[in-house]
Here is the input.
Amino acid sequence: MTTIAIIILAAFAVALAALIAVDIVKAKRANVQYHLKQCIAGYLMMAPAIALAFVFVLLPILFSLGYAFTDYHMYYPNDIHFVGVSNFTELFTEISNKGELWFAIKNTALFVVLVVPLQIGLALLLALFTNRKKRGVKVFKVCFFAPVVISLTVTSFLWLQILAPNESGLLNSFLGMFGIGPIDFLADKKTAMLWIVLLSAWQGCGYQMLIFSSGLTNIRGDLYEAASLDGARGWDKFVNITVPGLKSTLLYIMITVFVGACRVMIQPMLMTGYELHTVTLSYYMYQMGYGSKLIGLSSAVALMMTIVIGAITLVQRKVLK
Amino acid sequence: MKRSRIFKTVAIVSAAALLAGSLAACGPGGGREEIESRTDKYGNTLVTIMVHKDSSTQEGKAYQKCVDEFNAAYKSENIKAQISFVAQTSGVDQYEGTISTLYGQGGGKLHDIIAFDAPKCAGYAKSNMFVDMTDLIGDYVNEFIPASVNKVDGKVYGLPIQESSAGFFYNKKLLNDAGVSDTEIDNYKTNGWTFEQFKSVCAKLKSKGKTPVDMQLTAKGETSTFLLYPLGNAAGGEYVSPDGKTVGGYLDSAETKAGFKFIKDCIDNGYTGYNINSTDFLTSDSVGMFLSSGWTIPEINNQYASNFTNGWGILPYPHAQGKPAVSATGSWSFAITNNGIKNKSAAVKLIKWMTSDESAKRITDATGMLPAKTTMQIDYAPLSPEGVLYDQLVNTGKPRPAMAAYSDFSTEFNLIISGLRDNSVEKVLPDRVTSLQTKINRNDR
Here is the structure.
């Protein structure tokens, strides 16, 4: 492992040196004076960030990329072999046999399709509400943002108490007053994922609300005034001024919420455990790596996820630009 | 050529070179270092041990005390033990990740002795991470309850720190009110009871409007597997072949199915369920029996004793008519690792010390668990909760399946239990048999 890290570090240093060399050659050709000392000072200032990015971003990505083509097993860290694309063949076989991976893809897709519009819609509504210049609005803003600073583990347990499948559950005790239930919400194959969507949207929308709020403040007020003079109503102003004004903010939020949604794991892990009706791709990947100890196969799932998420993100950017 | 294009070209070439380098470096050996022994600057032979608890816990303090006593006893032989506490704050998976990383480095980076959860033994042993201790410890193995010793293919790879068993905790008042007399209860404790007798008691409790039994069907994870696996064995079934590689004909055998059907019957008849609050047995007079491990004994004694007006006790696992009773065993154990240190004599001395009668007593006193040694003076009253559990352990204890892919077995077992909520045993098992077999094949090296 250390040897590989050193090889990667060396290659990284070579690539960086090559870039500096290219800079020098280009400067000479263009007859521009090249200040080597200033250049080195610049790179030195960048060094901490580069080192962190190398250790925490580049190395894990490259290791994961490499492991996806090996039979790396957690109990055999010194016996790793290159296996070509057999990990991917294995995964596609599992999907075609409707194994756990198929359920993971299905559940993740359902989660993404539901949570992205719900979370963004909620965030936009809350931002519009809290952006009004009225007394007490800031209190609401703090309340809406509060779930963001609470850890997902805590919110998951909180919702577990709300949804507990007996009289001790908040929701069931309420329904019990009307003679309904108790209902095991998280065991129901049709509704469990919906509750996880609801919890996730509620927990996450406060953060997007803040970003939308900052986007809203950047829209010039005179545009609304002019539109009012022209007789535009609230909805017209929203569609013709607010939405276009938030376009770049919306693109950023859509991409970040989408990527975050694709990686959902904590909520199903804590709320239902490893169940076929709630397992997600990240949870499957975790289970494959830590449960089954198959790091190679788990890395192949990670690589597949990265490719699919990357591709969809690119499409989103193209479409929304 | 624009700068961005140059950058892209350099980046792509570098990435390709790095990937090639990574893959080329992946191969047998991996530069694992081997040394004869490890010494400190004073010339003491160092022997290291890693445990899964935090040093501030009662159990952690007990381990520390045992190590301190070892160091005092072996000072004249210049052997010094060092203990590391790697608490499972993020679950057992992280602990195992640490073990794997250190093991990969060789050169004594991984501790000479590590604590591990008993059912994981086969996986570690088959990967050569653990040392075969059979010859190193000789007859010392006979001091332990046979079912508690961690054996793979007849070889000893781990020695239990302590033991654990489970049983059906009962509320005496509720059972008596339902017409189950003390004599009948004592008879079940002494001679065991069948699935039918168990269901008959459940029916009586149900007729009194009580929830007959909380089988912890929603406990999830290893707890659920640990508590429920004996029922399949108690119906005469096995879960996998003796070599741990074949599921078909075992997990779906008629006998194992009978065990799952017993659980399903209890669910369908309303004797147990998935909606029972896990603290109801302890805090209210609404649940007659509660399937749990020995760790519930101190919990009741310390917090809930006053909730049991007529007292409480533990009934053993029931079994199918004509089949021998089976009970849960398996707690944490110690193993000597293949960590790149060739000389294992100091490690053998330490593992014997840590599992000696004195150490076992110190540790079980701290945890409330059962001792795993037959040489220790046991003074449990025969029908007391501890007595019932210890009696089960010695006479009917059966470890969980010894297989490299044990974690996968546990995952699939949990999926079976949750699947029984809406489906019959016949409908649930085929998919799980296929899935587990696939996972076992992936793990087979």
User: Anything to note?
Assistant: The two ends of chain B are 50 Å apart (CA to CA).
